[in-house]
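Worked problem 6 (solution included).
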Amino acid sequence: YWWTPPWPIMEIIPVNTKQTVINLEDFTGMTSNGIRISGKASIYYRITDPFLSLSVEDGIIDLGLHELMESALREALSEVDVDTLISRYQDAESAMTTRIRNEADRRAQQWGITIIDVKISNIKPDVEVIERYERVKKEEKEREAQLRKQEDRLQSREELLDKKLLAVDEKEKEVEEKIEKVRIVKAELEGMKEKV
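Solution. The predicted structure is:
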């Protein structure tokens, strides 16, 4: 797949139009919440416009794509928080890959290049961050469990208090009924005294 210009010129310059890959080893970036992330990536591209690609100096395309890939990765990472990256890795990776591919393809058009695919791998924070994240999640679960226990205890106490209040209300009604009976009996006794 070597492309040569269709008309005679002074010099024939072969242009490789096959799919080519550039590997980006050990890039680092910061997430939206300030955590440093490292990983690896590969960008697959093909020269689709040899005229434009010939207008760029030798070696500039690879260097430019390398820098383009780094900046696109850093931009994509800066929009993801570490919680999403750890808990929903597949979703975050897919979204970042799509964003990077679109952004890199848009920028690479000026060199006559089409980005075919972007592969991201081993994106992860430092081990200490993962351990701290897991510890925080565990503490949150324990806190939630304690809150649920306290809420259950509070609810059972409220139910017990409601039952006691109902019992007191019933006793009050009984006492009021007895007082009313005593008043009635007292009134009857006074009525009888007046008759006598």
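Discussion: The radius of gyration is 39 Å.
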